[in-house]
Amino acid sequence: MRISALLSHGPAPSELVEAELDEPRADEVIVRIEAVGVCHTDLVTRENLGARRAVLGHEGCGTVERLGSAVDRLTVGDRVVIAFASCGRCGQCRGGHPAYCAWAGALNGSGRRLDRSSTIRVGSEPVFGAFFGQSSFATAALTPAGSCVPVGDAPPEVVAPLGCGFLTGAGAVLNVLRPRPGDRLLVVGAGGVGAAAVLTALSEGVEAVVAEPVAARRALCAGFGATAVASLDEPIPPVTHALDTTGRPESIARALTLLRPRGALALTGLGPAETTLDIRSLMLRGLQLRGCVEGDAEPSVLIPELVRRHRQGRLPLDRLVTTYALGDFDRAVADQRAGLTLKPVLVPTR
User: Fold this and answer.
1) Extended beta strands in 8-139, E state
2) Which of 2, 132, 239, 246 has the fewest CB atoms within 10 Å around its CB?
3) Please, are residues 289 and 256 in contact by the beta-carbon 8 Å criterion?
4) CATH number of 172's domain
């Protein structure tokens, strides 16, 4: 199938090219992409791949266009959010924790299917594809049917980031930290993950404090009802829960000091592999430190719940999003880094 795809190759500007998408296998579908979020993981992966040619994108939303022969829970025309890929068979998947799938690395980051076959070609050469089981920086994506979550008539540019970034922030609150009304949550970093966490906490009746150096992001979160500070060095009252989205060792260490006894800190940001923590304080104060991948979410359960909250007006995710044409990827990234955009979403038909 001929498509247009955003091709990345090293530090050179990304370019829209014609590409050939593989035919769907029995358990796969082709989704016509209507919107796709830009996530920090896309940028890190592009850097790590060096000059290797790649089609990235892993927060796709669109309508199902073609079905594999064994797909029976989706129909052509369904609007779906495409979440991360998982095998559905290992112990973690069967236990409702697909983000920790035994095959997560190969399914989401190898650039191919599990059998090493390519899903996308540019010219006559296969390129790095199947990113998070989709590679949705394109006009269409080939993906496992099990990764697709129907979302009805929800606006694609709003719900696309529920495939990863918004899912991670919301799930960290609802599935990992689980604060209750009257608790106080500190969120370090108000990018897509952090801002979604703030909105989710507020929708639960939880007080939210956000530490974010970008003034526009602080103002946005304050407008939602959160207390916003520029850094963790400012006066912050003790908190019952904390979420670090930055991965910075100094932020993690400082957040732990702000927790009340028996408080919990969840980590969603990837930073240095090693750091120094006060283990004695961790133990004596009964603190919990938890890693969190993809919000510990079962996408088929959490994504519909977040869509429901958005429709009810409890989760104004549309306020976090700015849309760009698919070919304007580099401008979208530059705007995000300059603090002009919180969550860029690319729209192929814009």
Assistant:
1) 15-21, 28-37, 60-67, 79-82, 120-122, 125-126
2) 2
3) yes
4) 3.40.50.720
